[in-house]
Structure formats: C-alpha cells, structure tokens
Q: What sequence folds into this?
C-alpha cells in the first residue's frame, strides 16, 4: 500500500490528477451513445418482462440509428460550431494561441501528432503567411505519473526543427484542461506584453466552449476554428439513411462539449 502512494507521489498532487483523470474517463464513457446502446441491449437480454425486453431493444436500435446518421450530425454541427471571422487583409496579429490536444506520448515518452493536428497545421500557416508575429502553444501533460514529456515543449522542439524562430514561439506547459489553458496563457501574454486581440486556434467542435472560457478569463480572442468533424461539407444522398460508425464517434466529442459548456455557465 505504501508503494502505491509513493507511486502516486502525493506531494506533487499526482493523486488529485489521477482521481480527476479517472472521474473524467468514467464520466465521458457514460456520455458516449454506444454506452447507452450497449446498456439497453443488456437490459433487453436480462429483462424478464417481454414488454421491457421489447422497449429496451427498440430504444437501442433508435439510439444507434440517431447517433450514426451523418445528416443529423451535420445539422447539429452547423448550429454548434462557431463560424470563422474574416480577417482583415494585411492585418498582423500579435499571437495565435494554439490549444493543445493535438499530440500524444508513446510508450517511449516520444511525442506524435494525433488526429487533431490540424490545430498545429493552421497555427504554422498563420505564422508562415504573416498573419501573426508569435505562436503560443498551451498544453502540459494530463497523464498521471507523467514526468518529462509535455505537449507544449515537444511542439516547440518540432517547430524549431522546422526552422521557425525561437523568439516567435512561446509555450505554456502547466495546463491540463481548457480552463488552465486560459489562466496560464493570460499570464504568459501579460509577461510578454503582446497586444490583443489574439487568434484562438482550436477544433471547430471545441471552439464554442474555449471561446467562452477565454473571454470569461478576460482574454480578447478571435475564433479561428479548424479540424472540422462535420457540418463543413455538402450533404450526400447517402447521409440521410446510411449509418456511419465515424458519426457515432464524432458525437462523443460534441456531447462532451455540450455538457462542458453547461458546467461552465453554471460556474459563472
């Protein structure tokens, strides 16, 4: 038991992080549509009353069809995602704030880009095209027991290898969630004396909540969404009736964001 607590390293707060990570994982699992489909299927198998079996099975099928329909996801995404603001021609902003979550760490503590790396690509584009003078990367490591790897540090190293100037890259590597992204980024912006407004670069599905949090923390930001999961392409005839596993997966992100912004409003 002693070895267990030593591993968690209570003095550094790892226990709190481990508990938070575990809670977040369990909470997210119960947001996933497939979790409810599975629960309803289990009920349909073990229920003794025929009417309960039938209702559970019908409910499972209905949920599966609802959350695998691309047309419905596109409708929701178009209503939820924040539209990009047209940037004035020739205007150079002091910074683009690139929210983390687009990298991961493998078993050898080496970084890699994940499927949200469009945040990275768009940040580099803004710098290369002269739209911003600085890039701010915000993101630490929310994995319990992590020691050396942080997202922001690894991303900066990658940028330097791509010959982006060190003076144009600022990093914040303490944050483990969007609220901390905003808190620590504000401190960084204040110390660097960079003038607002700033471009906020994050996934389209995450932009609404991120925008709300950053503005609540007093950071003037302009939305620069990317990494679209849905809603930004034309509707195909098959989207109306052909189920898609990818659509069900995308709903995991959107449902988490909806609950997240409700919580943020309740905290206000």
A:
């Amino acid at each position: 038991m002693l070895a267990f607590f030593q591993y968690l390293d209570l003095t550094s707060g790892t226990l709190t992080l481990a508990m938070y990570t575990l809670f977040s994982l369990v909470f997210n699992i119960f947001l996933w549509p497939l979790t409810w489909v599975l629960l309803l299927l289990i009920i349909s198998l073990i229920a003794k009353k025929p009417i309960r079996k039938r209702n559970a099975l019908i409910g499972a099928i209905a949920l599966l069809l609802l959350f695998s329909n691309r047309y419905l996801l596109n409708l929701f995404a178009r209503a939820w995602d924040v539209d990009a603001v047209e940037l004035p021609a020739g205007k150079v902003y002091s910074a683009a704030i690139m929210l983390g979550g687009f990298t991961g760490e493998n078993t050898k503590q080496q970084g890699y880009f994940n499927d949200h790396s469009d945040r990275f690509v768009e940040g580099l584009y803004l710098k290369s095209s002269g739209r911003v003078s600085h890039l701010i990367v915000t993101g630490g490591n929310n994995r319990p027991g992590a020691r050396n790897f942080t997202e922001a540090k690894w991303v900066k190293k990658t940028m330097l290898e791509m010959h982006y100037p060190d003076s144009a890259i600022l990093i914040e590597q303490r944050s483990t969630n969007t609220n901390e992204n905003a808190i620590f980024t504000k401190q960084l912006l204040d110390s660097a004396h960079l003038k607002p407004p700033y471009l906020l670069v994050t996934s389209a599905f995450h932009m609404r909540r991120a925008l709300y949090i950053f503005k609540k923390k007093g950071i003037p930001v302009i939305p620069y969404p990317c990494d679209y999961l849905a809603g930004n392409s034309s509707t195909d005839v098959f989207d109306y009736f052909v189920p898609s596993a990818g659509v069900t997966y995308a709903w995991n992100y959107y449902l988490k964001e909806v609950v997240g912004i409700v919580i943020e409003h309740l905290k206000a």
Q: What stands out?
A: The longest strand covers residues 93-99.
